[in-house]
């Protein structure tokens, strides 16, 4: 099973990582182009716009990541109707908030710029150019990342990657053209960003709104209860970005007092650099979100543990690599951002200080995502509050007012914040942990379905495995008082379904496995679940034909229709779902 989990993780990880990096590059493109073509004054304006960008991330986290976790849980439970309602509610809510933000932003633009810290004069002029256009495009800035999240949950990580790359390339081209050829300055850079997100919405929508997806829009689908559900897991991640708005304001004002506009411009470089490197962690957390959500919904604790093992090792590997890159490559990184010579030394110092928290930041990001996906949103919220508001604000203000660190008090404060958060997290987990739960992860020691009434086996796609498994299932059911007739039907269904998967489902590109699970339910019924990573095929949608047509050869299908027909005839109910690249067929007798 570990091979399957590893394969599934990397199936999502590669495209998700590339997409996360591309999104980070899109966000940095504005800063890089501004630094290379417009100078340090543009740096300051873009730094002032960080809270606006963070607002977009807040809404996207609630109605993207939060909704995605709820959606994955419902997919794991097989509740398709509720999936459609969550999907529709999330999209309509995100769009409505985007429109409201665009209208409100234009009506109160000057007041907003003053609140963000823009000073009358050149700073206000540049900020109005850049932030004003971003606010006009707010519906698309919000909707694009929400749609990307749903695409991944619908097992389309590669297409999501394509959409992100296409929009990112357009953003870079548009920025350069609008600044150099049309001399639009920062307004041109903002237009490039907005149009790239319009392109992202169009491309992702072409796949997302197809009728054959795992979920789709429904009429009158908005539901307040669905909003409440998605807010619970989405709020901790969203609050991180909300706290970042407050923290950014504190940092900007602190830097302005200790180092002036130059210090604020340096923080813009560091902040966008950290955002880029955090995209690597997002590649991990974005990959495991559908997996953790599905396994949590199914109650498969062992698969949760296997997913954590694979993904946490990747997180540590990334974190160590980032530490090395930031320490050694700080001068080169500064030059890439177009940092002027009089700001080079302080920028290099700031980057190297931040390198000291790469490992702790990666672990905290991973744990925060894990707790959100596994029903411990409260713990995730504690991490968010401590790591993004209480500790950084208090430690930065203490260092700025009572030490001689100057503008570096901000960067040392961010480093110390992670270590303080870890101390609180260990204390909280120690208090909340139940006797039957594991340390730190707060997971039950055993599968919620491992109650002695479930038989599970993982086999390779080989016919010779079938007779032995059939015998074991029969013995398992007999020991639990299942009638001979029902035992016979269960074995028949297992054999027909497994043969169908082996015959038609695999392309033999690598070793394939079939996960078989038989459960004796409390009402005396027996449930059979077949899970495989074969090509997508929904047996419940196959055409109904008579046994005579199948036997005389007048009806031709590439699948074993006779076997599927037998399963449907003997089953009291059956259902199919496609989750994280797996076919799941459930039969109840």
Secondary structure blueprint with pairings:
Blueprint: H1 2-37, H2 40-48, H3 50-77, H4 80-107, H5 109-115, H6 122-136, H7 138-153, H8 157-180, H9 185-208, H10 224-298, H11 301-328, H12 330-336, H13 341-354, H14 358-373, H15 377-402, H16 408-432, E1 454-460, H17 465-479, H18 484-504, E2 513-520, E3 526-532, H19 547-552, H20 561-570, E4 573-579, E5 582-588
Protein described:
The chain is α+β, with helices and mostly antiparallel strands and 589 residues long. The chain folds into 2 domains: 2-432, no CATH class; 454-588, Histidine kinase-like ATPase, C-terminal domain (Heat Shock Protein 90, 2-Layer Sandwich). It has helices at residues 2-37, 40-48, 50-77, 80-107, 109-115, 122-136, 138-153, 157-180, 185-208, 224-298, 301-328, 330-336, 341-354, 358-373, 377-402, 408-432, 465-479, 484-504, 547-552, 561-570, and strands at residues 454-460, 513-520, 526-532, 573-579, 582-588. A 5-stranded antiparallel sheet has the order 1-2-3-5-4, with helices on both faces. Helix 4 (80-107) runs antiparallel to helix 7 (138-153). The longest helix has 75 residues, at 224-298. It is elongated, with a radius of gyration of 27 Å. Mean pLDDT is 82; it is low at 550-556.
